[in-house]
Amino acid sequence: MEKNISVIEISDTEIRLVVGYEKEGKVNLIHVAERPITGLISGGEIIDFQTLSSIVSSMREFKDETTKEKITINEATLLLPALGLNVFQSTKTTNVVSPYSLIAQIDIENAITLVEKENIPSGSKIVDIIPDVFVLEKGRTFANPPINEKSKDVTVKAKIHTLPASTVGDYRRVLEGARIKARKMCVTPYALAELGKADKEIPPSYILLDIGADITNVSLIGNGSVYQTVSFQCGSTALINQV
Q1: HSE of 76 in the Cβ direction (CA atoms, 13 Å)?
Q2: For a pLDDT cut of 70, what percent of the chain falls above it?
Q3: Sorting pLDDT into bands at 50, 70 and 90, what band is 95?
Q4: Order of strands across the sheet that contains 75-80
Q5: How far is Cα 52 from Cα 37, in angstroms, rounded to an integer?
Q6: Strand order in 206-211's β-sheet?
Q7: Which residues pair with 38 in a beta bridge?
Q8: Which of 55, 59, 84, 209, CA to CA, is 20 to 30 A from 179?
């Protein structure tokens, strides 16, 4: 049986929960829920931690309408706002552990660990590391981890997404208050860019305009990757009020 994956997004106006699983390269949703939280967050800054955690906690349990099974969410991927997002490029190389020069998962993990140790600006925290390409001897390149390929070393070229450490800590605190572990984190523009890869009509490079209720993000997407995001604390609510 496929393992369920839960994703939680906390915006300025809503908490969104999606639960599903992947099978044969396709995403299958089993549960979607939303809760209004207007007034609890302003411009990405959390105002009422306790109430937010209580609302998230109320969404932890649900019944799968297909299997009628009661499901409790204990961990989830946390989708973070892009306010203060910085994107850095890193290239790191590590020697392959195997005496036969066969690349294993530990070699990929060692390369990513080197990226994690990259110096980033004070007050920032790494949210996500996205490998762009893996490079082996003789210049061979792979989009996915080249497990079992032969090479004395492996180089990873990756993008590092960082946010203000205070922002990351505050949003994780909300989930922890609801007894949910943030197993992974990513920013909203990255999630939207990944979704765009599934649509053949969307080109690999474009400008992504995401107008939320209170915040608008403008992201530069190149070859499916987020290169930069600029955020404005002005969204659809302000536009509607001007009408």
Answers
A1: 29
A2: 96
A3: very high
A4: 26-36, 14-23, 5-10, 75-80, 181-187
A5: 7
A6: 206-211, 216-222, 225-232
A7: none
A8: 84
